[in-house]
């Protein structure tokens, strides 16, 4: 049951061009344009191309998570979550799927911006550091879907928390 | 006697000082098509929400196939088409109906659900690109896909054109012939007249008439050949709304 819902949501996410645009293409293009301007600077003791890479990868990861989060509020407004409540799918599984997708969307921007940085600015990190960057970004960003989606999904439809979900 | 699909005993639900549903007793026998009629604000949608476990009653008990409404929904015995139930952008009609099938324990084939609801041609369309009538047809398919024992439809034919409406009622009658139970609310009284085995008329949260269409006309004191509209107006006008907690104290939880 949950697998069917996950497959359904994954297809929807893939079809949504905004996700690709805001969380992957946007940060990569921004990196390509701006990383050269301050290539010789050091930011917080880190070479600028690397620091900008981390910043934009984090931005893309947040954008992806926020897209999934805002989709939950749209689904509430459209009555879709209400419709799901009269099917056998338990609300907890809806929350779990949303949280899972939200955390997975944090990965492509980090990989894409990292690739752009290594090709354009020859940013070099050891394999362990690349993995650490990815995991830290993922861990930091996936806090919000796990804390936000449950309140957005589980609250009664016309409760005050609707406005902040 | 085929058994009981749903039973509501002494259901009361208040919103502020208004009783949306007032000490309502209703038993729906399995295998019947029951129409729930009433003017706006009569308590139809509230009754349906309580029967689906979406809203809690302030007093009274609800059982659906012998268990709580929420358990019956979780067991896949009930499906519903809600007035405010909507679809989300980004999915196709087929995705939607496949999902509905996958959530229920004994689904019907996706293509059969689409054909029965008259939306097979729309299978590859995205749900955010449907007209209101087409979307309504997809909602029908979504509710039918799980082949539920009890189908609850809140004003199902709103926005449907004549052909879609006919197709819809053919599908619903076919569904009921397979010993399924259907409960629907509507403002289209001629539909209730032709489709329903039994009509329950609500006004101000209470049942004012209950029975086959002919019996409803008799209860209203109108001519047997009169339209159901005449009977409906006779039954539902001048029913006082019950306000405030002072009027009755019968709503002891059972």
Automatic annotation (TrEMBL), chain B:
UniProt-listed Pfam families: ABC_tran
Primary location: membrane
Localization annotation: Cell membrane
Domain of life: Bacteria
GO MF annotations in UniProt: ATP binding
InterPro entries xrefs: AAA+_ATPase, ABC_transporter-like_ATP-bd, ABC_transporter_ATP-binding, P-loop_NTPase
Keyword Nucleotide-binding on entry: yes
Topology class, membrane: Peripheral membrane protein
Residue intervals of the ABC transporter domain: 6-229
Record has Transport as a keyword: yes
Keywords (A to Z) from UniProt: Antibiotic resistance, ATP-binding, Nucleotide-binding, Transport
UniProt protein name: ABC transporter ATP-binding protein
Species whose genome carries this gene: Micromonospora tarensis
């Amino acid at each position: 049951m949950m697998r069917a819902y996950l497959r359904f949501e994954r297809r929807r996410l893939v079809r949504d061009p905004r996700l690709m645009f805001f969380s992957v293409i946007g940060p990569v293009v921004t990196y390509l344009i701006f990383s050269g301007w301050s290539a010789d600077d050091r930011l917080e003791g880190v070479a600028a191309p690397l620091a900008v890479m981390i910043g934009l990868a984090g931005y893309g990861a947040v954008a992806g998570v926020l897209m999934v989060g805002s989709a939950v509020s749209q689904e509430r407004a459209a009555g879709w979550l209400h419709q799901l409540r009269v099917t056998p799918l338990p609300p907890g599984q809806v929350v779990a799927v949303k949280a899972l997708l939200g955390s997975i969307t944090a990965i492509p921007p980090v990989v894409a911006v990292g690739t752009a940085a290594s090709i354009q600015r020859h940013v070099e990190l050891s394999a362990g550091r690349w993995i650490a960057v990815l995991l830290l970004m993922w861990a930091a960003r996936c806090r919000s879907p796990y804390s936000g989606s449950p309140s957005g999904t589980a609250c009664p439809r016309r409760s005050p928390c609707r406005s902040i979900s | 006697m085929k058994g009981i699909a749903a039973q509501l005993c002494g259901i009361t639900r208040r919103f502020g000082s208004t009783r949306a549903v007032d000490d309502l007793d209703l038993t729906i026998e399995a295998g019947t098509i029951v129409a729930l009629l009433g003017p706006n604000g009569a308590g139809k949608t509230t009754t349906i929400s309580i029967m689906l476990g979406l809203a809690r009653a302030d007093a009274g008990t609800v059982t659906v196939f012998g268990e709580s409404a929420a358990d019956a929904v979780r067991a896949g015995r009930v499906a519903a088409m809600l007035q405010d139930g909507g679809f989300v952008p980004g999915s196709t009609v087929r995705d939607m109906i496949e999902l509905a099938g996958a959530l229920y324990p004994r689904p019907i084939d996706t293509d059969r659900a689409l054909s029965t609801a008259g939306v097979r041609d729309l299978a590859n369309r995205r749900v955010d690109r449907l007209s209101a009538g087409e979307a309504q047809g997809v909602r029908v398919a979504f509710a039918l896909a799980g082949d539920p024992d009890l189908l609850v439809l809140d004003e199902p034919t709103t926005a449907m054109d004549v052909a879609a409406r006919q197709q819809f009622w053919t599908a619903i009658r076919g569904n009921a012939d397979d010993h399924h139970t259907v409960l629907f609310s509507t403002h289209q009284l001629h539909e209730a007249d032709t489709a329903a085995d039994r009509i329950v008329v609500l006004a101000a949260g209470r049942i004012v008439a209950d029975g086959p269409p002919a019996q409803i006309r008799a209860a209203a004191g109108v001519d047997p050949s009169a339209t159901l509209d005449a009977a409906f107006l006779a039954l539902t006008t001048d029913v006082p709304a019950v306000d405030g907690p002072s009027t009755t104290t019968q709503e002891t939880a059972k």
